[in-house]
Amino acid sequence: MINDTIVSDEGKEYSVEEIKHSSRITKSQTPKGTLDWYLKWVGSIWLIVAIALRSTGIPELQIYDMLLSFAGTTMWAIVGFIWSDRAIIVINAIAAVMLLAGLFTKLFGG
Q1: At a CB cut-off of 8 Å and minimum separation 6, what does 95 contact?
Q2: 36 CB-near residues (< 8 Å, 6+ apart)
């Protein structure tokens, strides 16, 4: 016999059917442990660190901000391609190109 009941961490029991059709039980829309899952979380963390560096206002940290921002937006652009989500692709691909241009200017320009 298949167990058709799931017990939550709080000890409440739910039937598989109830979970499947529930509007009050939150379920993740994306699978865990896939390439897009890792890319979106690593990219998000790198973007948060980049923003933290930017918020310090220390000019010497600007290059690290730009590098992490470029890496994070590139990862999110790849996620957009995997998900076929044009809005995610557009914003992150454009941001990545602009950040890359800024990096080249900072490293090789004046």
Answers
A1: 69, 73
A2: 30, 78, 79, 82, 83
**Which position has the token pair 């059709």?**
21
Extract long-range pairs of 78-84: CB within 8 Å, 24+ residues apart. Answer: 78/36, 78/39, 79/36, 79/39, 79/40, 79/43, 82/35, 82/36, 82/39, 83/36
Q: What is the pLDDT of residues 43-76, one digit of tens each?
A: 999 999 999 999 999 999 999 999 999 999 999 9
Q: What is the DSSP letter of 109?
A: -
